[in-house]
Amino acid sequence: MFLALFGAVESGLIYAIMAIGVYLTFRILNFPDLTVDGSFVTGGAVTAISIINGVPPIFATILGAFAGFLAGCVTGLLHTKGKINALLSGILMMIALYSINLRIMGKPNLSLSRESTLKNQFIEVWEKTGIDGVINNLLGSMGIERLPATWGIVFLMIIIMILMKVIIDYFLKTEIGLGLRATGNNQVMSRSFSANTDTLIIIGLGISNGLVALSGSLIAQYGGFTDVGMGIGMIIIGLASVIIGEALFGAKTVARATLAIILGAVIYRIVVALALRVEFLDTGDMKLITAILVIVALVTPKIVQVQREKKRRLAKRAALKVGHVKNVEA
């Protein structure tokens, strides 16, 4: 159980980068971007083929993220300059990326198990610190069995997520970030204030898909392979993380929203890991579990709101009744 939860937290932190990318389009730009399913694989594909051809992993990761940025910009161009519906622009780009990703990889999947990746390089350095032994001895003395081989990935991802949260929070308060938020809220009003909304949408989609591709790149190096089909359903997983995070932790401010999404991505992975331990469920039910989680996260707040409104009306009616009785008695 402990090992399963640990793995869920580890992968949840990596997928949180993708969830923040989805948040930028879904909540900030109010743009239904389905490019995500393709750009996630693009990040992994570009990174994998670069590493196999001798590019250092850090530069291969940057190349993967940049490829996702370009894919997002093309979606933005299709919508703003080509005047194609937002949803259709994303679908067209997602379909195109499937073939592009196959071209990049040359075959449906690539293995990185024998290559030097960011994960391998970091673990080599991490193991020299001896921190794994200290933590595992401490947990072992508490009676916890089957401990993880390394804690390095979790520590690395926590540091990356803190840095990324600070950068995204700061970016959304800059002139361009405020322009993105205004464009998402009311595009017509933003244009009336001389804002170039087309450019802002293209930049927003580029950054969003750059983050998604970065997540795909890290997942490929984390899992040791990349596959042309590994992006299927990523948009739903991203939306699930955003909706669960907002429902549990709120999103009144940008800083709170980004933190909620990171935690939402981790909680989503933990819930899926726990659900898959149920005897009658297997890995093929993961999409069904995701759909049920999203439905629960969407419906529950509305049910709570309706119940609160009902109680408020009953309380108001009771107060009016008491006031009427006092007036009659007087």
Please describe what this structure looks like.
It is a single chain. It contains 13 helices and two strands, in the order ααααβααααααβααα. The chain has a two-stranded antiparallel sheet with strand order 1-2. It is globular and about 90 Å long. The model has no long low-confidence stretch (mean pLDDT 87).
Q: Which key phrases capture this entry?
A:
2% strand; mainly alpha; two-stranded antiparallel ribbon; 330 residues
Task: List the SSEs and their pairings.
Blueprint: H1 2-28, H2 36-52, H3 57-80, H4 86-105, E1 109-111, H5 118-127, H6 131-141, H7 152-171, H8 175-185, H9 187-192, H10 197-223, E2 225-227, H11 234-249, H12 254-275, H13 286-329
- How many helices? The count is 13
User: What proportion of the residues form beta strands (DSSP E)?
Assistant: under 5%
Major β-sheet profile: 2 strands, antiparallel
Structural class: mainly alpha
> For the residues shown, what is the average pLDDT?
87
Form type: globular
Report strand order across the widest sheet. 1-2
Order of helices and strands: HHHHEHHHHHHEHHH
Low-confidence stretches: none
Helicity level: over 70%
Distance between the termini: 68 Å
Number of strands: 2
Gyration radius (Cα, Å) is: 23 Å
